[in-house]
Amino acid sequence: MIQRTPVQKKRRPDTVLTDHESPVSDRRLVLYETPAPVTAVDPSDEMVCTYHCRQMVKSDFLLALNNAENQVAEYEAKLAMLNSEFSQSEDERNKYKDRLLSLEQELDASKGREHALQERLLKEVGDSMMRYKDQVKRCCELEVQLNKEIESRKNAELSITSANERSRDLEGKLHRLSDSSEREKNILKRQLEHLQDDSKLSSYKIAADLERMKLRAENSEKESELLRDQLNDLRIQLDECLHEKSGLEHKLLTYAAAPHESASEDNNLVKHLREQLRNYEAEVQEARKLKSYHVNTELLKEKLLEEKGHREKAETELSKLQEVQLHAQNLELELVSWKSLLDELPDVSAVTDIPKKFAALQNETIQTMLEVGETKAHLKQLEVALEMSEDKRQHAEKESSLAKEKAGNAALEVRRLELMLSSVTEERDRVRKEAIMLSKQKIGNEGGLSTETLVKDMESSLVERENTIKELESNLHEQREVVHRLHDELRLLNEQLSTEKRKVKSLEREGDRLRSEISLLETKLGHGDYSAANTKVLRMVNTLAVDNEAKHTIEALRAELKRTQAKLQAVEELKGQSDAANIIDGGIPEKLAQLKGQIATLEKREERYKAVFAEKISVFRRACCLLFGYKIVMDDQQRPDGIPVTRFTLQSIYAQSDDEKLEFEYESGNNTNIVVNDYASQPEISHQIEIFIKKMNSIPAFTANLTMESFNKRTLS
Amino acid sequence: MGSRTASKDIITLRGSATIVSEFFGYAANSILYNRGIYPEESFTKVKKYGLPMLLTQDEGVKSFISGLTSQLTEWLEAGKLQRVVLVIMSKATSEVLERWNFSIETDAEVVEKGVIKEKIDEEITTGNNVEKGVIKEKSDKEIMREIQAIMRQIASSITYLPCLDEPCVFDVLAYTDKDVAVPFTWMESDAKLIENPQMVKLHSFDTKIHKVDTLVSYKNDDWDEQ
């Protein structure tokens, strides 16, 4: 072991040490100085003594020299040792310096790293604070949404309770509706029975009317037959009269050839002719009556046809009645089904309540649909919010995981730094100890002051480092606390997220339920249900089926009409030419052939009679024209009120133009009226009409006067 | 650098009503053809909605549908029409076999105020590398496309609708507001519902004034039930 403080040398008397020089400290070699010669001694003795002394001194000097040399050697050895020790200590000092430098570098690096870590941690803290703030904001928003959802859930629960109450009310109303429907069913049954009775009565009445009309038709047919017979008789009489007339004409001609015969016979002839004329006129009137009767028969036939039509209608109505009965049965079945429905339906007491109930139900369904729509929209919003919250949760989870990782990394870094710090402190302690040891050693040696200052500097720097490390530790502690707080907040957020997840699941279940209700309501709407209070269903009257059916029926009716008309014509012809009314039944072929032969002969006769009658009538007309001076044109017409009228157009033979025509209307019942036309409205003619027709009620006087005037005009002109 | 000039697609209440009633006319013809209500030879092809549409040449059906569409137009302009239903019934039994339901939602504000709804396309300018967003509500092309989709669905409905083996007739029901005056060629009717029907919802189209939803409900086929 190298002694730091060398042992002090023993001072020899021979050695001269100056006070100024310190051999120990300087480690310089002290030269031995020869001592000063001694004075005041005997010269011989002195010589011997001196020789002995010298010898003694020499020996002593030699001894001392040896000792000194030994000491010097020792000192040299010691010096070498010290030098070696010094070099070693210097080496060690350099090493420690190097180590200190390295440690300082490491400290600087660690400081830099710590600074960087600090900055990073501060950034992370700032980011985490920002994220925390964001998460707090999101939590607040989620809380607000939660509150809204809770409110909506409460509203939904309230609506559910109200719907339940309404459903209970509806059930009660349907019970009432069922009772009222039973009553109305009974009423409807009674009405049906009444209707059936009425329809039966009407059918009986119609049948009775039909029979009456049939009898009337038969009577009218018989009358028409009688009239036809009369007509035939009259025709025969007319023929006879015509024959007589022709005979008379011959006679007249013969009388004209022999004008000198007696006037009395002429007068008699004229009288006879007049009588015959009167007879003819009477016969003509009778013929007219017959014609009117014929017209009446035709009218009766038309009425018969109408009655037949009525009968057919009654028959169709009877068939319809059967359909109505079937419909009534169907209605009864429907009523039964309705009753069963009413039993099932709550809150229905009468039939009249049913539409109101249905309207109310439909309103409710519409309202529920609206609510469902609203809840749907709300659900969608919630779904969107849920998705957003899930995204946020995932983001927050990611961030929390990242923060956790960062916190772990920071903790690892902190531990590493702590380890580094511990190692640095250990190194520092060791260096300190070594520095102290060195300083102690250097105190013994002279060159120790600089190392002490170095050690002191190092110590001061170490103290500073310790302070910084303490600050870092405090920062790390704070950051750990912050990280712990963040962890706690993350835990709270996770708990909140889990509760929100549960709420979202419950809302999803509600949404599914509402969706199913929506689908049910949509099916009902698609089924075609509607609110009778707000809606009515219309369809076109002239649908194609009806048009087609109507067309078909119209065509069928037209065909039937044609057939019936043909049948009637045939029947009329048969009735007119035969006496038996049962020919219509016409089932026997022999009779039919006979009747057909009779019909043919009768038709021929009729044609002949018509031709003869036309000739006679034309002759008669010409005679009347010549005798009375008027061309008479007869025309049968019908007034707008249905009364048949015969119109006579008279044109004087002395008329100066074709417009000078008088028109008279003759009704059955001997009513003859003048028809006002342009010629009759002339002042002269109207004056004569007023005098002769209106005042004197004499058409012959008027016509005679007019004839005279026109004759006078003609002759004078 | 491209630019599109502005164009305005103005649609009025009357125009929308015409579109809807025209659509119903063509849809009715398509249904009658596809369901075989009338023989194929009584139909002719015309081009409409970008598709070959079949129109009946039967004068009775033609006049019926034309009278119907004119009345529907009137009701649509008044905002009184809620639904139009084409009913297919058995000729023999008058049983309702199919109901083609066209529900109509009308914009009440348009009917009340007679507001013209404008559909505007704004310019897209890329001159200064600034693209403005296209504020486009809807165009006639879009409406036609939607109608085309419905017509395609009607044509493809024969794949799932049951066969109509017996002679059938059709009728049209109009669901109107309660306060509508019934024209003399129309009368009130029952809804002609189907018991326990199957329903298939088709596409819808929207003119921004009238929204039409289509749904077909049909009687369950005996084969399906078995």
From TrEMBL, chain A:
Residues 58-120, 153-334, 379-612 form a coiled coil. GO terms for cellular component: kinetochore; mitotic spindle; nuclear envelope. Keywords: Cell cycle, Cell division, Coiled coil, Mitosis, Nucleus. Residues 1-23 are annotated as: Disordered. InterPro entries: Mad1. It is found in: Nucleus. One of its GO terms (biological process) is cell division. Its main location: nucleus. Residues 13-23 have a biased composition (Basic and acidic residues). The keyword Cell division applies. Pfam families: MAD. It comes from the Eukaryota. Belongs to the MAD1 family. This is Spindle assembly checkpoint component MAD1. It comes from Ensete ventricosum.
From TrEMBL, chain B:
It comes from the Eukaryota. Pfam families: HORMA. It is found in: Nucleus. The keyword Cell cycle applies. Residues 14-216 form the HORMA domain. One of its GO terms (cellular component) is kinetochore. One of its GO terms (biological process) is mitotic spindle assembly checkpoint signaling. Keywords: Cell cycle, Cell division, Mitosis, Nucleus. PANTHER family: MITOTIC SPINDLE ASSEMBLY CHECKPOINT PROTEIN MAD2, MITOTIC SPINDLE ASSEMBLY CHECKPOINT PROTEIN MAD2A. Belongs to the MAD2 family. This is HORMA domain-containing protein. It comes from Ensete ventricosum (Abyssinian banana). The lineage of its organism: Eukaryota, Viridiplantae, Streptophyta, Embryophyta, Tracheophyta.
